[in-house]
Amino acid sequence: xxxxxLGPVGDERPAVRTDDGVTxxxxxxxxxxxxxxxxxxxxxxxxxxxxxxxxxEAGELEVLDTAxxxxxxxxxxxxxxxxxxxxxxxxxxxTGADIPGExxxxxxxxxxIVGPYDQVLVPRRSVKTDWEVELGVxxxxxxxxxxxxxxxLACVGAYVLxxxxxxxxxxxxxxxxxxxxxxxxxxxxxxxxxxxxxxIADPQNLEMRLWVNGxxxxxxxxxxxxxxxxxxxxxxxxxLVLRPGDVINTGTPAGVALxxxxxxxxxxxxxxxxxxxxxxxxxxxxxGQA
Length: 290
Fold this sequence. Notes:
This is 2-hydroxyhepta-2,4-diene-1,7-dioate isomerase. GO terms for molecular function: isomerase activity. It comes from Lentzea cavernae. The chain is an alpha+beta fold. It folds into two domains: about 1-55, no CATH class; about 80-290, Fumarylacetoacetate hydrolase, domain 2 (Alpha-Beta Complex). Helix content is about 15%, strand content about 30%. It has helices at about 25-35, 40-45, 50-55, 90-95, 150-155, 170-175, 230-235; strands at about 1-5, 15, 25, 80-85, 105-110, 115, 120, 130, 135-140, 155-165, 165, 190, 195, 205-210, 215-220, 245-250, 270-275, 280-290. A six-stranded mixed β-sheet has the order 5-4-16-9-10-13. It has a five-stranded mixed β-sheet with strand order 7-18-17-14-15, with no helix packed on it.
């Protein structure tokens, strides 16, 4: 199953697409699961996936006409957006950074999240806007002080394709933490859909790619993470409580603009970025100017 949210910005409607490609209206059953009547943390925590599967098997959902509907971010009301930096050895090496001994953690604000085909805006005075394809982990149940990787994976509700857009001058050269270069508006396209964790056979073996203006820039696999998903969730749970609807961006492989020879090909208005992860769909954004 693929969980989507379709419609204008701020007025998206939850939907589910089955393996045969048919999309069903999810609003009636979502209203019984979550107070927001949407695909959010409460939906995942309240057995939303199993209840939707049962409703599909019972023929209780109506087919939804998706023609001309915008694809929004597939998660409503995201909580924290927690990001792991330098989680691929080749990415650390290309940027001249040391291989981390523990996960490097920073935060993005939830309002950076936009739909997978929405416009991404190059910030004003930006000269180093960069791309990063990442596997997103959506928490489905509360995680705190976890000890085992098995318990950590049990707290994962879904996986999603995430684009951790970054402004490198703001991030690295302007002092303080990385957050200034990570939280510009539109800097986290998400989607096009959520896939329940139980339907991804091996999240540590997914091909991931990114293109800029048709030229491939990143081509790797989640198997190349330094800290795997289970360890990331376990580790984070000792520093903050992970709650249903939180998103973890698990890092990006080599191939970002920052790691390229001079002149580095940072993004400009008019550029087109496309990215995909095996089993999690494809995104496409045209860059605009803020």
